[in-house]
């Protein structure tokens, strides 16, 4: 299992990489926020409470991609603007999470940060997942990079997510924490950008 020393090393890597990347991406992020604001007719940054390390809540930041109104889990792509759909499919909408990494709410690699009602409800051995910061990418994120498409094909997306996808993600993320290595993190980062 990942140790405190390894967690510290992981954090140092996150800080160094985010300090390198933010000056490169800050202007593009500002431009994309303006574009998202015009496109969705709402402020271009979307924030939402998510469950972080040790079950602590934090605000995640993304580019806004959805039109105004209520959104069903299985039909998020239909709720997205045309440009928003492009942002979601290419993961450009997640660029503002560089700030989450820099301030220490997230890591570059780890379990995806969930809304309340999932990670905060983990029991027994499954709570090992909460030992690490949630990540922009990770093994479960890569396996389910087409999650919205999968859910859109289900009769009951909410139930399918809770009974099939979520259970599988928990197992994948437990293995990640139990077998963590720096090489593993680098491998997931490379897979995410290629």
Short précis:
The chain is mainly α and 194 residues long. Helix content is 53%, strand content 10%.
Structure description:
The protein is mainly α and 194 residues long. It has one domain. Helix content is 53%, strand content 10%. It contains eight helices and four strands; from the N terminus they run αββαααββαααα. It has helices at residues 4-40, 76-79, 82-90, 97-103, 139-143, 147-152, 157-178, 182-193, and strands at 45-51, 57-63, 107-109, 135-137. The strands form two sheets. It has a two-stranded antiparallel sheet. Strands 3-4 form a two-stranded parallel sheet. Strand 1 and strand 2 form a beta hairpin. Helix 1 packs antiparallel against helix 4 (97-103). The protein is globular, with a radius of gyration of 17 Å. The two termini are 28 Å apart. The mean pLDDT is 92.
Strand fraction equals 5-15%
The poorly predicted ranges are none
Rg over alpha carbons: 17 Å
The run of helices and strands is HEEHHHEEHHHH
| Number of DSSP E strands | 4
Average pLDDT, rounded to a whole number, is 92
Number of helices: 8
Strand and helix map with partners:
Blueprint: H1 4-40, E1 45-51, E2 57-63, H2 76-79, H3 82-90, H4 97-103, E3 107-109, E4 135-137, H5 139-143, H6 147-152, H7 157-178, H8 182-193
Parallel strand pairs: 3-4
Antiparallel strand pairs: 1-2
Question: What tags apply to this protein structure?
Answer:
single chain, 194 residues, mainly alpha, two-stranded antiparallel ribbon, 8 helices
């Amino acid at each position: 299992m990942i140790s405190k020393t390894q967690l510290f090393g992981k954090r140092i890597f996150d800080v160094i990489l985010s300090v390198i990347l933010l000056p490169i991406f800050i202007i593009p992020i500002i431009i994309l926020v303006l574009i998202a604001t015009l496109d969705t007719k709402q402020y271009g940054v979307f924030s939402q409470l998510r469950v972080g390390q040790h079950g602590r809540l934090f605000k995640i930041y993304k580019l806004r991609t959805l039109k105004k109104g209520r959104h069903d889990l299985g039909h998020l792509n239909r709720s997205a603007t045309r440009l928003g759909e492009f942002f979601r499919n290419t993961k450009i909408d997640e660029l503002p999470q560089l700030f989450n990494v820099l301030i220490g709410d997230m890591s570059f690699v780890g379990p995806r940060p969930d809304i309340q009602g999932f990670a905060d409800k983990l029991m027994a051995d499954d709570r090992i997942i909460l030992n690490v910061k949630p990540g922009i990418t990770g093994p479960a994120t890569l396996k389910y990079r087409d999650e919205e498409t999968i859910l859109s094909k289900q009769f009951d997306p909410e139930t399918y997510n809770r009974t099939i996808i979520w259970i599988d993600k928990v197992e994948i993320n437990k293995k990640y924490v139990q077998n963590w290595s720096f090489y593993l993190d680098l491998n997931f980062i490379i897979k995410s950008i290629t």
